[in-house]
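Q: Make up one entry.
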Amino acid sequence: MTEAITADEAFVGTVEPEGADRLDEGRLAEWMQANVAGFEGPLHLTKFKGGQSNPTYKVEAKSGKYVLRRKPFGPLLPSAHAVDREYKVQNALNQAGFPAARQFGLCTDDSVVGSWFYIMDLVDGKTIWDGAMPGAEPAYRRQTYLAMIDTLAALHTVDVEAAGLSDFGKPGNYFGRQVDRWTKQYKLSETEHMPDMERLIEWLPATLPEQTRTSVVHGDYRIDNMIFAHDEPKVLAVLDWELSTLGDPLGDFSYVCMAYVTENAGRSGVQDLDRKALGIPELEELVERYCGATGRSSVPDMNWLFAYNFFRLAGILQGIKKRVIDGTASSAHAKAQSDRVQPLVDRASEYAKLAGM
């Protein structure tokens, strides 16, 4: 029997790009020379193991280290993989003082590396792939979780207009638009009929919670989508802005809380951990801290929000499943991800029933 590999082994570090993942380093160096302030070649590219949607590379050059994120090659679903939006939101937030990586340039010319891409700073820190944070002291774990919530609250209190992001999404009806979006994406990549998914597609739009606030929403906010300082519980950069837009901040908050209804299995879930012994704050404390930092008196029923989040994840992973079948998925983890669609639909249905479906 083969031993299960840890999240660190699966996701940390880089590999030499192979086949279609190889990019023309000469063309890229020319583009960076012309478009990235202070750039000096030559450069060498390796591909990050982690992340699955937009292929991400480490660029090592004489002038320093950078990150390149590009669209996948091949046919893509409409509105997916919008690297120009990722670039725009990170650039605006970085300039507004929020911990997003510094952006160096966006390329919308397919002839350079074969697809649109952008270049950003390589932030020196660590990614926490396992929510149990093996080897950390309980007090350090606790402060890390609180820093994650404080950073989310800071994102949700950024002045959208002052940051130049008032056109980054439509105000209002965020959950309605998201349910509609993921229903469409699911239908575009449907591979089999799932009766429970059809029930959710009918029930969710009929039971939407009222939206009372609009902010920048990250869309995939969890412990392994940020870079922490090496030696203190501080968020240096939030990564993976592919799903970001303007919307209801409760979308992000309920999503990060999904860790509390997800088993760990070496990833971000904390449901089955001895949280008290580990120093991980309970969900109630995170709710209280987030509300305090954002001026809320409470958050609405989490069962609907959890049902919505599991539904949305099922829609996202169905897209990956279709790409696996079509042969265009970008990661070795894609196949395993694609097997998770039905279990996610089951969990969404479970919380939908608790919310009255």
In short: The chain has twelve helices and ten strands.
